[in-house]
Amino acid sequence: MTPTIEAVGIAVGVGCRRHCPPEVLATLVSAALEGAGLSVDDVSLLASLVDKADTPAIVALAERHGWPLQTLPAAQLALYEHRLSHKSEAARRVHGTPGVAEAAALASLEQQGGSARLLLPRRHNRWATVAIATAG
């Protein structure tokens, strides 16, 4: 079951390479949460691209924290291009969207009805990206 807008306040959007070590993604997300003044308990859901639904690091992160994992199609994420702080031509070529983390965080909240805004724009390392959005 997808959480309702009342239950969803903070979304962490992520994207990563297929073989990203789980601890690398977890460390990046932890640093992003700290940078936004949030804790793992503040997060309502983890969001990513449908193509990433079975990526081990993403699945492990969701399971570790008990976060629902919401995945969205590239066509839906591409609609957020004008709101992205960074556009990746590589992501566009491979996935059909110029960004995953920011777009997934925003789209996962807005598809529940209402608006969302980025609390923390895209942060990345060589393996992964993360962004944080809030409803309202």
UniProtKB/TrEMBL annotation:
Q: Which InterPro entries match?
A: CbiG_hydrolase (IPR052553), CobE/GbiG_C (IPR002750), CobE/GbiG_C_sf (IPR036518)
Domain CobE/GbiG C-terminal, by residue range, is 10-133
Q: Which Gene3D superfamilies does this UniProt record tie to the protein? A: CobE/GbiG C-terminal domain
Write down what this protein is called: Cobalamin biosynthesis protein
Organism placement in taxonomy: Bacteria, Pseudomonadati, Pseudomonadota, Gammaproteobacteria, Oceanospirillales
